[in-house]
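Let us work through a complete example step by step.
Step 1: write down the sequence.
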Amino acid sequence: MTRILVIKLGALGDFVLAMGPFAAIRRHHPGAHVTLLTIASLADLAQGCGYFDEVWIDSRPPLWRLKACFDLVRRLNAAGFDRVYDLQTADRSNAYFHAMGPLFGGRRVEWSGIARGCSHRHDNPLRGSMHTVERQAEQLAIAGIKDVPFADLGWAQGDVSRLGLGAPYALLVPGGSPHRPRKRWPVAHFTEAADWLVERDVVPVLLGGAEERGVLDQIARASPGARNLCAETSLADIITLARGARSALGNDTGPMHLIAAVGCPTVVLFSAASDPALCAPRAPQGSAPVTILRREPLSDLDVDQVTAALSFH
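Step 2: predict the structure and record it as tokens.
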């Protein structure tokens, strides 16, 4: 049996954008055993999508943890993979290419990626200026996979009945990477947007993880009509909520990719800390397009302009 390895370590938004390539790889190798190497926080999505026979977790040990590094290399080489699709295309995954060879007890395998010397190298000098979706499609084409579909999250079904969201609602995602504060629209602005929704009889539903509790609690206290679901939703729940939402507003952060990918009318806020031309969420063809608003600093983005961009279906 042909054995395929796919490498995609994160983050969440990048993982969602890779769902189309995952589907294309699975379709291209219908009888193969396909393994995904990813990170623990993405395991549920990886197992639920149905594209992989196995999901391996990479703890991404630092180089000084030699035993952990060698254990992973030995496992990769012992698996006998015939082809690898490196959708991470980073220094770490490039290192795996060089480690998967005779020097470490393995054999050289077919490799789709950017590692120097690999068999199906994506060497377009403009790849760094391409959106992730087009860049990965071009990479896979070099490996013989010509048709890459849009991400399909139809398989994800969360039980959100426990939340009791009967009234029309919109999703607000005010969090983001704590080490990148420039990517966050001010809490006070999100509070004004929440009040704007309440005035229109739409419940603002606040989404975020436990690490964002302070931000979500602050908005909920200032806008009593908001529903605070901090740390109460799985990724499948977020996808399901997005299907029923009137609209969604958030910073450039992973959950916005899930929300946009199911066709929810979505407004995403960008600063100069990230480039929407490279990594903006994508919506399926025929659904409401994703609206991108960008300012530097993001605090200069006016609340009225943001609420005007929200659309309701």
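Step 3: interpret the result. The first strand starts at residue 3 and ends at 7.
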